[in-house]
Amino acid sequence: QKIIVMGLGYIGLPTASMLATKGHQVLGVDVNKDAVETINSGHIHIVEPDLDVLVRSAVNSGNLKASKEPEEGDTFIIAVPTPFKEVDGNPKAPDLSYVEAATRTIVPYLRPGNLVILESTSPVGTTELVYRIIVESRPELEGEVHAAHCPERVLPGHILRELVDNDRIIGGLTKAANEQARALYKSFCNGAILLTDSRTAELSKLVENSFRDVNIAFANELSVICDHLGINVWETIALANRHPRVNILQPGPGVGGHCIAVDPWFIVSSAPQQARLIRTARQVNDDKPHWVIEKVKAKAARFKSPVIGCLGLTFKANIDDLRESPALDIVRELLRLNIGQLLACDPNVQPGKLEFALAPLKQVLKDADILVLLVDHGEFKEIDLDSIRDKVVIDTRGALR
Ligand code: SAJ
């Protein structure tokens, strides 16, 4: 098969390389010229364990090429971002402009029999929209081109393993689309392949991330309740989780990344009256960084000129991804408030990447009056607790216990 992958980010690039190493001829397309050049030279522009090795072997085999322009092929996979934007007073409306642009870009290259797969996490009805865009500009392709939603479900940090092992949902507009998509995913996916219609597939993916968001909100709300009552939240959760049917997630400084903090809004936008719990959970999680900042302010008020040490900047542990990171938002806000001297450190973030300087962990642990743990990176879990006994500690992740 010849496969065109539109978008070479965290999903498109691993998928394109995986398909190429399974013997397909793959053309990866991206609007970013630097990404295209980097990939063609066998390197990567994003950080994900083992992805560099996979991309290098895919490029060296001759099966993976990157370009700014698509070509004709058998299957087209759309893996572009679906963020939100403000529309008609709704600040969190889905922004489908990248999906629409990618679809319009492939339209001239489509032939009868082609399959178009939407992998981007999308609001209900987007696969139908993609099909409509195609047949509106090429009416002769009506009924001749197939479309399906096959949502990506991989966890950043474990993308390559999950790409192969996770079960995969396929929601085609037609039976033929489902069968064609199944054959493609079978070539690299060991998980079960589950067929449904496009709208159910779209909602299932949104529901997965909303489920996680609601459960994290529950944990975050518990952390605020426990703080109010002077009870240890980590112990409370650990004890409650000993019940055979209770499994509470972990509180943190807020929910980051480009998925969990975004996707629930697509459900809220589609069903604003009905999605009450999902909306509230989003608000609970979005409020958590402000709560942490208030805690720091209250502790800082006890010092004349406090040194505040912030541990961690990424959106979760042991990755280098800063997108929508609550830890980074908190540090930026503390810098803006200028309530003391701020030392921030993150072993996974390159110095010079941010607008403020990073401090070495050793210096933060030595100089800080107040330590604010924001990300539970492995390095922080190894901190000798005796060495920080004299400090005020705000541990948003329960890593310094
Ligand atoms: N978090 C907590 N407490 C927890 C778990 C997570 O505060 O107990 C926070 C993290 O620190 C982070 C945020 O939630 O800030 C999101 O992290 P995550 O590990 O839950 O998820 P992502 O965004 O890295 O990836 C999710 C995954 N979805 C689910 O687990 C249902 C992944 O499988 C999806 O493919 C991905 O979203 C996506 O692309 O949609």
From TrEMBL:
Q: Where is the UDP-glucose/GDP-mannose dehydrogenase C-terminal domain?
A: 309-401
Check the record and name the InterPro entries matching this protein. 6-PGluconate_DH-like_C_sf, NAD(P)-bd_dom_sf, UDP-Glc/GDP-Man, UDP-Glc/GDP-Man_DH_C, UDP-Glc/GDP-Man_DH_C_sf, UDP-Glc/GDP-Man_DH_dimer, UDP-Glc/GDP-Man_DH_N, UDP_ManNAc/GlcNAc_DH
GO annotation, biological process = polysaccharide biosynthetic process
Query: What organism is the protein native to?
Result: Acidovorax delafieldii 2AN
* Keywords carried by this UniProt record: NAD, Oxidoreductase
Q: Read off the Pfam families from this record.
A: UDPG_MGDP_dh, UDPG_MGDP_dh_C, UDPG_MGDP_dh_N
What is the protein's name according to its record? Nucleotide sugar dehydrogenase
At the top level, the lineage of the source is: Bacteria
GO molecular function terms noted in the UniProt entry: NAD binding; oxidoreductase activity, acting on the CH-CH group of donors, NAD or NADP as acceptor; oxidoreductase activity, acting on the CH-OH group of donors, NAD or NADP as acceptor
Q: Which family does it belong to?
A: Belongs to the UDP-glucose/GDP-mannose dehydrogenase family.
**Which Gene3D superfamilies would you find in this protein's record?**
Cytochrome c1, transmembrane anchor, C-terminal, NAD(P)-binding Rossmann-like Domain
